[in-house]
Amino acid sequence: MSAAKSISIIGCGWLGLPLGQYLADSGYRVKGSTTRKEKLPEIEQSGIEPYLLSFEPDLVGNPGDFSSSDILIINLPPRNQGDDPNYHRKQLLAIQQLAEKQIGKLLFVSSTGVYPNTNSKVMESDADPGQLSRGGVSLLEMENLFMENPDFQTTVIRFGGLYGPGRHPGRFLVGRNGLSGANNPVNMIHLEDCIGVIKSIIEQDIWGEIFNACSPTEETRKSFYHKAAKDLGIDPPEFSDETAPFKKVSPEKLINATGYQFKY
């Protein structure tokens, strides 16, 4: 079981805020950062100690004791920064510098975007930088950088497509028609399962690992998005008979290591 008492979260947005609130309610001391001053009261009301920090790409703001925690969770999605393709990488390097010598354990939220479309099931070892976009290559590089850093233990979680409150999949393809890949598998994960997976890793003290995290349910794109549209009472997207490259991301390693049971 985990002996961790304090957790810092970089990025209190769609995932980070409810995650922080859940961890605070579970008895952890939680510190959370935001780039928006107006969001500080909401973070504090969630039981999280708020910090106004941004990485532009270097650190802006006074971190105080933000990084003096047992665990640091990095939840910083890539952003399009025009003519600087290395912007996200520079942000993560600045975060690593902040964490060194202070954080004992680091959890990096990554993405299944590190896998190419192989028309088959993919495991954690199947990430191939030679077949990825620049963004996917950058994510892999940062995963490796964190994993190899001797100052802290790192676990990487590669989440599938995120959905849940405020991100209803029924709206993802609204009004679309002629979509290819109707029978392709979906690689999605609900917010509740994102939080559950992170909780399992922290509580079971599982570090030095890379895990895929998406629903193990076998469902096609057409079925998934038609059900989602029906939930909202809107017209479903229309799919053609055209095939498209795909991948099926396997969470088998995560399930075997943690015993986690997906809710969705």
Structural write-up:
The chain has helices at residues 16-25, 40-45, 87-99, 134-148, 191-203, 221-232, 252-258, and strands at residues 6-10, 29-34, 49-52, 54-55, 59-60, 71-74, 105-111, 121-122, 153-159, 161-163, 188-190, 210-213, 248-249. 29% of the residues lie in helices and 19% in strands. The protein starts with 5 loop residues before the first strand and ends in a 6-residue tail after the last helix. By secondary structure, the protein is an alpha/beta fold. Helix 1 packs across helix 5 (191-203) and helix 3 runs parallel beside helix 4. The strands form four sheets. It has a seven-stranded parallel beta sheet with strand order 3-2-1-6-7-9-12, with helices on both faces. A two-stranded antiparallel sheet has the order 4-5. A two-stranded parallel sheet has the order 8-13. The chain has a single domain (6-163, 189-216, 248-258), classed as Rossmann fold, CATH 3.40.50.720. It is built from seven helices and 13 strands. The model has no long low-confidence stretch (mean pLDDT 95). Strand 4 and strand 5 (59-60) form a beta hairpin.
